[in-house]
């Protein structure tokens, strides 16, 4: 997995210091979740998960700090605190608690965080891979096109071995050499999977440096991230399939 190294600066949780309008209750300037003057809960508004936590759209983030902020907000937004409140506050607390859970679940995981950022940037990963599948189907090369080019040979051989492995199983024969060979290939793929994580970290750094910068660099990093996530998913699925085959 990607390890989250410490960012250069502390996680800029602005949250309750970011002024986002007027408080419904006291009319003073309010912050995202609670009024800075009277402390009252503010209306739940649709917002992206980075904004919910008062974070910039960067990919390196301090997960321990995010977790602390999650727990702090969980306590403060808990619907039980608003049982006796009049008006819509209880409903807002329910809505915000649900937003909080979704935001935390998405941002704490390195892969879902990256996929989410791409979605905010207008890149639909599923659609990309779906259109890639459609294109492949049209040209009659259904699956081969989805295989990362540098893995073509290895995957081809692996498929042959798995076919033999399944045939042996049907005949209730065991070929220890074949099993060893498949296991070795699987381990190699696991190493390649781990390598995608350090590649991902490099792209994160490039993204964070370019986040407010030139569109050309941003587009180049976005393309890199899409290719890497697709590659990662492909290898992860392959390893999963081989494991199922070996354990069955
Ligand atoms: Zn107020």
Structural account:
- The chain is elongated.
- Helix 2 (63-77) runs antiparallel to helix 3 (89-108).
- Strand 1 and strand 2 (29-30) form a beta hairpin.
- The chain has 248 residues and is mainly alpha-helical.
- Strands 1-2 form a two-stranded antiparallel sheet.
- It contains eight helices and two strands.
- Residues 1-19 have low confidence and may be disordered.
As a percent range, the share of helical residues equals 55-70%
Unique bound compounds? zinc ion
Q: What order do the strands of the largest sheet run in, or round the barrel if closed? A: 1-2
Structural class: mainly alpha
Give the averaged pLDDT, no decimals.
Answer: 86
DSSP E strands, number: 2
Count of helical stretches: 8
Through-space gap between termini: 26 Å
List unreliable stretches of 5+ residues: 1-19
**Integer-rounded radius of gyration:** 24 Å
Following the backbone from N to C, one meets helices and strands in this order, namely EEHHHHHHHH
Shape: elongated
Strand content: under 5%
The biggest beta sheet is recorded as: 2 strands, antiparallel
Question: What features would you highlight for this structure?
Answer:
mainly alpha, binds zinc ion, two-stranded antiparallel sheet, single chain, 248 residues, 2 strands
Q: Can you summarize this structure?
A:
The chain is an all-alpha fold.
């Amino acid at each position: 997995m990607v390890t989250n190294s410490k960012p250069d600066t502390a996680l800029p949780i602005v949250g309750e210091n970011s002024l986002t309008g007027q408080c419904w209750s006291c009319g003073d300037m309010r912050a995202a979740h609670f009024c800075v003057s009277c402390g009252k809960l503010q209306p739940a508004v649709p917002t992206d998960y980075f904004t919910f936590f008062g974070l910039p759209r960067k990919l390196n983030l301090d997960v321990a700090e995010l977790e602390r902020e999650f727990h702090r907000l969980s306590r403060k937004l808990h619907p039980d605190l608003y049982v006796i409140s009049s008006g819509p506050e209880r409903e807002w607390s329910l809505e915000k608690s649900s937003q909080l859970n979704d935001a935390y679940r998405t941002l704490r995981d390195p892969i879902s965080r990256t996929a989410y950022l791409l979605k905010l940037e207008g890149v639909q990963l599923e659609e990309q891979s779906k259109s890639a599948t459609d294109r492949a189907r049209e040209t009659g090369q259904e699956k081969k096109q989805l295989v990362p080019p540098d893995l073509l040979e290895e995957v081809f051989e692996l498929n042959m071995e798995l076919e033999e492995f399944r045939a042996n199983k049907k005949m209730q024969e065991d070929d220890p050499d074949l099993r060893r060979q498949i296991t070795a290939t699987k381990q190699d793929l696991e190493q390649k999977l781990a390598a995608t994580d350090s590649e991902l970290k490099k792209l994160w750094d490039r993204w964070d440096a370019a986040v407010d910068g030139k569109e050309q660099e941003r587009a180049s990093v976005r393309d890199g991230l899409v290719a890497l996530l697709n590659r990662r998913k492909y290898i992860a699925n392959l390893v999963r399939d081989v494991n199922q085959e070996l354990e069955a």
